[in-house]
């Protein structure tokens, strides 16, 4: 299956279950292991698992292969390896903490939406494919704040 068809199937599967903040990155210049990284958010453990099952089922229906599915037990971060595309489905707090967009970002992919090619900002808000945010911070360096604990007497 070609990468354009695979990414369209994945995006449709994510949109069917109301996946949020969907982003697609062309990573051929970063790794020879896969061509696309697709990141989406789900609002709860149940929704992230439902998004993952939707992607798995739609890819298999179309004749594609799902090599691995990880993290479905907890549902906070589910990873689906579809060969040429890797899909990360995360809850918003986990996504904000790990900021995968900063690692894989750089080359966003424009997709055809409703029969016409669009730029990322022209898509409706419920089906958004956004360009990565530029940050002056270094990639993949989580920031942790110390919280003073209160002593009870």
What report would you give on this structure?
This protein has helices at residues 3-16, 45-61, 92-98, 100-104, and strands at 20-26, 36-41, 68-70, 77-81, 85-90, 112-113, 116-117. The N and C termini lie far apart (66 Å). By secondary structure, the protein is an alpha+beta fold. A five-stranded mixed sheet has the order 1-2-5-4-3. A two-stranded antiparallel ribbon has the order 6-7. A hairpin with a 6-residue loop joins strand 3 (68-70) and strand 4 (77-81). It is built from four helices and seven strands; from the N terminus they run H-E-E-H-E-E-E-H-H-E-E.
SSE string: HEEHEEEHHEE
Distance between the termini: 66 Å
Helix content: 25-40%
Query: Averaging pLDDT over every residue, what do you get?
Result: 78
Across the major sheet, the strand order is 1-2-5-4-3
Q: Tell me the Rg in angstroms.
A: 17 Å
Q: Main beta sheet, described? A: 5 strands, mixed
Class derived from helix and strand content = alpha+beta
- Poorly predicted runs: 114-151
**What is the number of helical segments per DSSP (H or I, 4+ residues)?**
4
Strand content: 15-25%
3D shape: globular
């Amino acid at each position: 299956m070609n990468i354009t068809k695979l990414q369209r199937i994945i995006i449709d599967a994510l949109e069917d279950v109301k996946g949020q903040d969907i982003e697609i990155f062309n990573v051929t210049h970063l790794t020879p292991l896969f061509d696309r990284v697709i990141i989406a958010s789900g609002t709860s453990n149940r929704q992230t698992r439902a998004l993952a099952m939707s992607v798995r089922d739609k890819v298999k229906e179309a004749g594609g292969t799902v090599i691995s599915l990880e993290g479905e037990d907890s549902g906070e971060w589910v990873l689906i390896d579809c060969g040429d595309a890797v899909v990360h489905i995360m809850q918003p707090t986990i996504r904000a903490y790990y900021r995968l967009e900063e690692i894989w970002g750089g080359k966003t992919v424009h997709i055809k939406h409703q029969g016409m090619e669009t730029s990322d900002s022209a898509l409706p808000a419920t089906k958004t494919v956004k360009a990565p945010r530029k940050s002056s911070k270094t990639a993949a360096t989580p920031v942790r704040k110390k919280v003073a604990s209160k002593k009870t007497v």
